[in-house]
From TrEMBL:
This is Uncharacterized protein. The keyword Disulfide bond applies. Keywords: Disulfide bond. SUPFAM superfamilies: LDL receptor-like module. Disulfide bonds join C22-C40. It comes from Timema poppense.
Amino acid sequence: MDMLYSHIVTGRNCTSPDEFLCPSGRCIRRANVCDSQCDCAPAPTTSRGGSSGACADEMECKEYYTDVHGVRLCDSSSTLTCIVPGQNRDKDRCIHPQYLCDKTNDCQNGHYLSDEFGC
């Protein structure tokens, strides 16, 4: 397999139990599932490659956040809100507790209020 496409897995599951398989075959970290940001490309719904706009890693997420007029509000009882300074609130991410202090900045916002702060 060409190294350029090494992140795409076809015909099998992802190599790590901490990964989620997108319909496209791409593997993403499970920390990025239900984080209020689309990490899987929307699945094609037509033979011409049209898309439904649905994002596979954000499909079953009602218990983690609520969408209010396009802004996703994290449920404070089940997730931590990562704020991206200087951005609209629609760029905020919801982080699940099991990914706090795991030595990976899942907030993806530099070091500003990282989920690794104070660990």
